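Memo to structure team: turn this sequence into structure tokens by end of day. - J.P.
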Amino acid sequence: MKDLSIALNHRPGALADMGDVLGRAGISIEGGGAWVVNGQGAAHFLFNDGAPARSALEAAGIQVLDEREVLVQRLDQAKPGQLGKLTRRMAQAGVNIEVLYSDHSNQLILVVDDIAKGREVSGGVGARANGGIPMKQHNYELQVEWTGNTGEGTKTYRGYRRDHTITAEGKPPILASSDPSFRGDPSRYNPEDLLVASLSACHMLSYLHLCAVNHVTVLDYRDVALGLMDENSDGSAQFTRVTLRPTVKIAPGDDRVKAHALHDQAHHLCFIARSVNFPVDVTPTIAEETASPA
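Reply from structure team:
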């Protein structure tokens, strides 16, 4: 989601002209507003993808002053004080809110001077920590069963296998183990594999959805994801970074710039990436399908 800051002439019909331009380009406004400041029209409008909106407006001679990433927050509108709690948390983090309005889904949209810190407050710690409530809550129940007892349980460190199965109702089991570095079975997936795979798959599914609604036809998608984990002297460990390297093939004539830009939005939407405490980098490659010879 991107906020466009737009300069409008202070005259009747300026907003109508802008709306006509966007309508002819098939671009929807997701939220925003317009004001007169010191005799000059000023507007902030929200778009799923800022690039085509900006191109359409500038081609019509309408000045776009800035294009900014936004924070999206849903508050409990029935409970007084929600806005105060959120903005106080922003202030305590040293984040200055420059623009604030609501979108068509009654979500709060914020443009801030430090998007990384703002995301930590607004998105990184979750809606409930800010005094808000989630739109929906989803539950995921799985069963993990250790199958590595060779007869003496965990009597010794070397005396048991790390094998286990992961199952969920109505789905085939996943045969898993630990990393071979920790005496696991190299032929089975380990938790580290599954974490990296979850990040890759979540980004892919978010991206394919965005392409579908933004008229980009993806014909092939392949990702070679890399996770880095540091092991500490006390036996603990933590992931420090995951890099997704998707190669995407789109239909001939489709907008490669838009296809590339949608990866940023997909990363913002991916709930797995939003849930981890280490950086997830995305370095996409966009290729166009070669048209078949006549």
